[in-house]
Amino acid sequence: MAIAKAERLMNLALCLLGTRRPLSKRELRESVEAYLEAGSDDSFNRMFERDKDDLRELGLVIETVESLDGEIGYLARRDSNRLPPITLDAEEAAALGLAAKVWQQARLAGAASGALQKLRAAGLPEDVDPYEAHGALEPRIPVHEAAFEPLMLACRDRRPVVFDYRKANAAHPESRHVEPWALECWRGHWYLAGFDRDRGAERVFRLSRITGKVRSRGARFTAPVPDVVTVRETVAGWAGETADRSALIRLRTGAGYPLRAKATGVRELGDGWDELEIPYGHGLDAWLVEFGPDVVVLEPAELRADMVDRLRAVAKG
């Protein structure tokens, strides 16, 4: 069975690499002998989708192209699947080994280990151990969100996705159609940057606010992918990191430690409350709402009004 699957994957890869135009499922079924033996269309579709995912996991870049009549085709361009000679010195190999230790998830750890094995086969010096410890600290990047892996694969394969997203001031999630560009971790939270088709503009989404499953869509991107995606800068602006103004809030004693860390001034008011002066920028109201009844905005008036609007929207939901 393992030999039969390996042969089927090899034949599919050769078909996708050997064509100059996208091939439909029907054409691929007629070209790969093992697919002709599939008992039904459903059986073939399941087999083909598994094989396509397996080839992508192995590193083959498979493009999904939609024709003018709406038919979906597949191909693997040779220029996208050709790597230059790989040469690494000891320092570069050590950096790759350290990066491979970062991921805690089993699937990502396996992929990192497989990548290092391929580099070893491609000429990594035998006297270099990429897993050797190079310090007392060992990095870890936690990934708890179920949406991370499907979004990571969608970014890699340039596939649009659909997911339900709940904004900070909303009681119920909304469906979002997104062309994913990049994932980035900022201050312990993962964010996705991409093109929001419904709003026709670039947006950044916090993965912890994605509810339900991330569904892929078999179509190509409609907007160009920028050379540089500024995820951290965008989120920092929303969180007030680039603020040039200040806000005055009341904070319950013993609560809101992230706010206290950002405060430029703190004054005890007594009766279980403190007064804080914090940087004020776009999106500060959304962040303050997360602290619920522990925060009261004193000034400026527009920030207080935004907070009241958000809290009323949650109450109505």
Mean pLDDT reading: 80
Number of strands: 12
- Biggest sheet descriptor: 5 strands, antiparallel
Unreliable stretches, pLDDT < 50, 5 or more residues?
Answer: 133-137
Radius of gyration: 25 Å
Biggest sheet: strand arrangement: 7-6-5-4-8
- Strand proportion, as a percent range, falls in 15-25%
The helix tally amounts to: 11
Q: In one word, what is the shape?
A: elongated
Helix proportion of residues, in percent? 25-40%
Overall structural class, as computed from helix and strand content, comes to alpha+beta
- What is the end-to-end distance? 54 Å
Order of helices and strands: HEHHHEEHHHEEEEEHEHEEHEH
Notes on the protein architecture:
It is built from eleven helices and twelve strands. By secondary structure, it is α+β, with helices and mostly antiparallel strands. A five-stranded antiparallel β-sheet has the order 7-6-5-4-8. A four-stranded antiparallel β-sheet has the order 10-11-9-12. A hairpin with a 4-residue loop joins strand 6 and strand 7.
Task: Break the fold down into its secondary structure elements and pairings.
Elements: H1 2-18, E1 23-24, H2 25-31, H3 33-36, H4 41-57, E2 63-66, E3 72-75, H5 90-100, H6 106-121, H7 148-157, E4 161-165, E5 174-186, E6 189-196, E7 201-206, E8 210-216, H8 231-238, E9 245-252, H9 257-262, E10 265-270, E11 273-280, H10 284-289, E12 295-299, H11 301-316
Antiparallel strand pairs: 1-3, 2-3, 4-5, 4-8, 5-6, 6-7, 9-11, 9-12, 10-11
